[in-house]
Amino acid sequence: MYELGARKIAFQNVGPMGCIPECKTEFPKFNGSCVPDLLSMPTLNNKELNKTLTDLAERLEGFKFSIFDYFITLMDRIENPSDYGFVYGSTECYSSSSLCEYPSAYVFFDDGHPTQSVNEQLAKLFWAGDLSVTSPYNMKQLFEESND
Fold this sequence. Notes:
single chain, alpha/beta, Rossmann fold, 5 helices
């Protein structure tokens, strides 16, 4: 992408795969808790992504990036749903052939995908969130940053 002229690129790291409803169902021995091995892999990947992008920013003239911390922001909604206006953090709205009455009360729509309400919250954070969730810039700052 850089060779084609891209200088500002926004990234989202990998989410807490071990905490999605599908994983909790597939690994019943964890009694509905997050699957540790499936949490450690995204954590390692996310650390390497940050290191790699920081290195590229130092080596490639004009390259700037933003990383949205999808892992932390989604995990916080799973663990503390009521802090974000949700009732259910770790169960899905749609299961098999049954749809819940109020999808906006859920963090997850189905066994692997967040609801529209969650995605709207996260998109707003990616666009204008502080350094605790997006760094070294949020997307708005990244696009406003000069190309020098």
